[in-house]
């Protein structure tokens, strides 16, 4: 049973909703369910203390969780975990920034407040506009700017082939591209081609910019 914990009603959280596109048409729904639960566990484990309320599979093929703000690092990692774990399924993300009108709980269920209203509206908007992500409630022009950068990154990442995703994972794990190429069992030249085809360097710069933008929004807000 999920326990409630104390919460400051003035505090801002990021409510995250994840929905699988056309999940009813999945050829193997049991496999999809396994992917969802595995990704949920990975997300909760990897994000650690950045998670305000643990991600849970709610009903059908929907998942929701809540992050502490500013969550610049955690939000990007969250998106990447879900996109990679649910391949080849397409996802819609709805993110709502705001407060809670009920106590914060250990798991992201049984809560209410503007963060959840905005997340629900955001995922519906993402579906309606056929975007990977929509976000609502950030300070200033944050919604438009963050959504634009995030959608560009997600468009790139969802188009990666399995080899490109593998190469990116290795280059982030090893100190040099030579070591990563050796781990993949290919020449450095072939490895570089995989990264270039994935637009890895541009993706990495965009990801860094997204984290800085998120952090800056809340710094200015303070």
Give a summary of the structure in a few sentences.
Helices cover 53% and strands 17% of the residues. The protein is α+β, with helices and mostly antiparallel strands and 222 residues long.
Give your account of this protein's structure.
- The protein is of the alpha+beta class and 222 residues long.
- It is 53% helix and 17% strand.
- It has 8 helices and 7 strands; from the N terminus they run ββαββαββαβααααα.
- Strands 3-4-2-5-7 form a 5-stranded mixed sheet. It has a two-stranded antiparallel ribbon with strand order 1-6.
- Strand 3 and strand 4 form a beta hairpin.
- Helix 5 crosses helix 7 and helix 6 crosses helix 7.
Find the CATH superfamily of one domain.
Nucleotide cyclase, GGDEF domain
Which architecture of one domain would the CATH scheme give at its second level?
2-Layer Sandwich
Q: Count up the helices.
A: 8
CATH T-level fold name of one domain: Alpha-Beta Plaits
Which CATH C-level class of one domain is it?
Alpha Beta
Layout of SSEs?
Layout (H helix, E strand, L loop, with lengths): L3 E2 L7 E8 L8 H19 L3 E7 L4 E7 L3 H14 L5 E8 L5 E2 L8 H16 L3 E4 L5 H17 L3 H12 L3 H8 L3 H10 L2 H22 L1
Parallel strand pairs: 5-7
Antiparallel strand pairs: 1-6, 2-4, 2-5, 3-4
Helix pairs in contact: 1-2, 2-4, 2-8, 4-8, 5-6, 5-7, 6-7
């Amino acid at each position: 049973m999920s326990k409630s914990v104390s919460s400051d009603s003035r505090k801002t959280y990021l409510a995250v909703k994840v929905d699988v596109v056309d999940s009813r048409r999945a050829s193997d729904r049991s496999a999809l369910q396994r992917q969802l639960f595995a990704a949920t566990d990975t997300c909760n484990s990897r994000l650690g203390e950045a998670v305000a309320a643990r991600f849970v599979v709610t009903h059908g093929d929907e998942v929701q969780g809540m992050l502490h703000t500013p969550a610049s690092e955690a939000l990007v990692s969250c998106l990447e975990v879900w996109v990679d774990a649910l391949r080849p399924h397409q996802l819609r993300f709805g993110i709502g920034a705001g407060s809670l009108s009920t106590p914060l709980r250990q798991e992201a269920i049984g809560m209410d407040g503007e963060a959840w209203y905005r997340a629900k509206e955001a995922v519906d908007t993402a579906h309606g506009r056929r975007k990977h992500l929509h976000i609502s409630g950030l300070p200033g022009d944050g919604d438009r700017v963050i959504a634009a950068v995030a959608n560009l990154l997600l468009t790139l990442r969802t188009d990666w082939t399995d080899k490109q995703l593998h190469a990116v994972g290795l280059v982030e794990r090893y100190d040099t591209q030579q070591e990563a190429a050796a781990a993949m069992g290919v020449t450095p030249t072939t490895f570089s081609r995989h990264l270039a085809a994935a637009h890895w360097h541009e993706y990495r710069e965009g990801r860094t910019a997204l984290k800085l933008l998120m952090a800056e929004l809340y710094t200015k807000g303070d």
